[in-house]
User: Fold these one by one.
Assistant:
Number 1:
Amino acid sequence: MKERILKVITLLIFSSLLFACSDDEPIYDDNWVIDNSKEDWEEQIVDGSAELWKTGLPVIVINTPDGVPVKYKTTWVEGATFECFNPDSTLNSSATTRIRLHGNSSRACPKVSYNLDFDEKCSVLSMPPHKRWILIANHFDKTLLRNTIGQWMGRKFGSFAYNPRNQFVEVILNGKHLGTYMLIEHIRQSDNRVENGYVIEFDDKYAEDDIVFQSVVRENDTINVNIKDPDIEMDGEEFNHIKELINNLSATLYGKDPFNKTTGYFHVADRETFADFYIVNEISKNVDARFYSSCFANLTTYDRLYMGPLWDFDVGFGNYVFENPYTINEPTGLYMHKCPWIEIMLKENEFLKIVSKKLKRYYNHEAEIMAYIDEQANSILNSIVLNERLWNVLTKDSSNLSDQEIKDLYLKQVEWLKNWIHERFIYLKTKY
């Protein structure tokens, strides 16, 4: 083990790496987090070759064969090694993996995300064993928290059977420290993720080889339905069955009698998860969630459609960073009421009752939500310093700032986010 650690350290002579010591092994539950808020940032000299600093985060080390760079979303780099170290530097897990880029618009960022596909199922940081994982850079989000907040809200307050688990980590790729990442479970159909049926994504950004069809909603308007997992044949029996069911659902919702007791949409679509999907994405004013990108559903083998798992909140919660012709970043105003399908469901009294009841649970637990945000921010606060020195997301040039000044800038962003959510709740209470 010492030889393995020293090998990693040698690769980091010209970079700053953060480690922390923890007496406890992380134990998985739906709300778990490795708490390092009481850890001091202390200098260590190991073999005189590198300065190590403690952040309290696990460290993931990935090496590709001969240091081959990872440059493409559609091409895997095969035969890479994956090692995850606990905050006390002991080995948590290891695997052989292939790796490629992940994401769409985020691939243009200097700090990019990565898709991992292990050769064999492996448990990482007490999360259930699987082959598929994603390392999210969260580069658009100065707090790095929006994705984990959205996921946690879905797990804590929603009726989803599954929402991806995640953990903040440090990442080293081919000897280069890349900063603070979020390791998250890839949404796949399996026993410990989406347990049965088919994973479906509503997404305008599908690839050429994806299994996709279009379903008509409004007149001259369609949504793209991407059957993500498991693999099925285009125009095969399963494909045609799913296509017929989804098209019938669209036709029912946009037909003359969508709420009929015998033939209404709710005989196929689950009201509870559709309401939860609406609520979390309305709270966050998530631009992608109007069936534009990364909107997931699962269709069970007995032909019932459930929304979720939730995904992709980095440009939500007042953080739409692209050209903004709307008032999307304001905490006021509705957004998800124009989402296909949901725009019709919101006209049904029963659906509105469910939405109103569920929203009250969020309002009543606002203090718990804010405490969770503080907990997460504290857990990565020391890591943020190195991340900022690498990527300069809080300021254009962090080289002249002290560590404390960087932390103060970061905490101002966190406070802004909390205030935005508070103001969002105040507004939504006037609507529901």
Number 2:
Amino acid sequence: MKSLEELQAIRDRMKGKVALREGMSDIRIVVGMATCGIAAGARPVLNAFVEEVERQGLADKATVTQTGCIGLCRMEPIVEVMESGKEKVTYVKMTAEKAKRVVAEHIKGGNPVYEYTIGEAQK
């Protein structure tokens, strides 16, 4: 059993991650977490987005949330990035490594990683 101090440290560490998943920021990162998404590896993708947004100090700029089925099961894991006043960007066949690049280049840098988007996957 963990001590009260250890439990408090875990609580404090996780509090920031929960806030990342509940807030309303200028940028919303939505990960498809239906059964098809989870089976295709969406859980590590969701975790990578949460951790990377926090690590890069973007919690005030971006919120990471989850949704059910997006409707393109063969393209899972799917991530949608929605920004105020901009067209939604849909990333497909995501991995945790791709998520890190999306955070660095799209969320932080403002440049979508088009090679991971649904438009490129259709070619």
